[in-house]
Amino acid sequence: MHVSSPFNAALTLPAVLSLLLPFGASVALPHLDAKMGLHALAVQAGKKYFGSAVDNGEMNDKAYISMLGDVGQFGQITPGNTLKWQFTEPTQGHYDFTGGDIIANFAKANRQILRCHNLIWYQQLPGFVHSTSWTKETLTALIKAHIAAEVGHYRGLCYAWDVLNEVVSDSGGYRDDVFGRVLGADVYIPLALRAAAANDPNAKLYYNDYGIEGLGTRKNADALALVRMVRAAGAPLHGVGLQGHFLVGDVPGQAALEGVLRGFVALGVEVAFTELDVRFVQMPPSPGGLQQQAKDYGSVVGACLAVERCVGWTVWGFSDKHSWVPSTFPGMGAATLFTADLQPKPAYDTVKRLLAAAKGRAKPPKRHQGVRRVGEAATTTTTTTTRREAQQPCREEQQRQWRRHQHGHGEREGPNAGVDC
Question: Residues annotated as region Disordered (predicted)?
Answer without folding.
Answer: 359-421
